[in-house]
Amino acid sequence: MQKCANIKLFVLVMIIVIGVQGTYLGYTVGVLTSLERRFEISSQKSGSLLSCYDIGHTLAVLFVGYFGAKGHKPRWTAAGVIASAFAMFGLALPVLIYGTVTYDKSKIYNHEQYVSENMCRWRSNQPSSSSPTKEQCLREASEHTGAYVIMMVSQIIAGIAAAPFNTLAYVYVDDNLVNRQQSPLYLGLLTSMYAFGPALGFGLSSLTTRVYASPGNAPDGLNINSTHWVGAWWIGFLICGTLYLLCSIPLLMFPKNLVEPEHSYEMEPLRTGSHPADDSQDTTDDGPIKRLCISLKDFPSAIWTLARNPIFMSMVVGWIFGSYLVGGYATYLPKYIETQYGRSASAADFYAGFISIGSVAVSTALGGFLLTRFNIQPRAATLCLAGSCGINVLVLMVSLSI
Question: What is the pTM of this model?
Fold first, then answer.
């Protein structure tokens, strides 16, 4: 295995991991309509469900990036991959606990009777043998709440588990490159998978939403274009969880460093807090508890040092606004196509995936290639970024005026 332990293999494994992560993110958006129909989730609740991933990721990424910087980065990453696998299985868990949605085939054509028996609206002043009872309403409401809570917790775990992917894994690649000029290419490949992945996720959701929630038991008269159709939303989560587990195996076998220390580009740790640049304060021989206490004490100082860096904070603000725009746009794009243009959930997912590949994935991979090919310096790259953002704003304003 040591002969195979090279940076190219690590990048290949991480491309698959980040691809699976992007697939999961895109797939969750693609099956959102099926989840709303199955568990009677409103658009507001579905948005909150998706934001749970960002909440978990935001809470964990700072701590993982800081405390894992001096640790065994591949093992930290592998732990995140394994935790992501359990999160995927947790997202599919409601189908095992509460089962798939079922309809009475003999009553599909009677819309009024269908609605009265499947839409839980209990009215004490209008008793009817075909109307659901209060106990049925409470039982179904409890099931929907339980499934929603399970998925929320799984989303938070998925966000926390993904923290090492775009922090420690990136640093590991950059630190173990012999030729530093290859860094933009490799990191560009990794970043492009955050765009290719959602496109794959939309494609996967377009396939699973064609299958009824209970495969092989679709009622007569109910098809993919019906408003009552619920796709097999749980299949994609099982696929992603299995792929995560497979990817964790090679990650656990990578060493802490791939290159000799004298060839590593790893930067010296930032001296902050009560431990200034004094070689006598070396803590490598201290116990793990003492090192943890020192790291916790220096953590606020390190954050404050970054907060005072104008270049870094400008990049953070730019990423915040960019993520705010793209996140809201991408989250409800399939649903918008489905409702605005009367397309099925499967077709809407396909169109959204095609847009994702064309707009983000290709541009990200192309940017990494250009940076490597022409050795573009940071100042020139920043000017190119500002120019492309300006063009994007102009095109957006023109499209809104049409």
Answer: 0.71
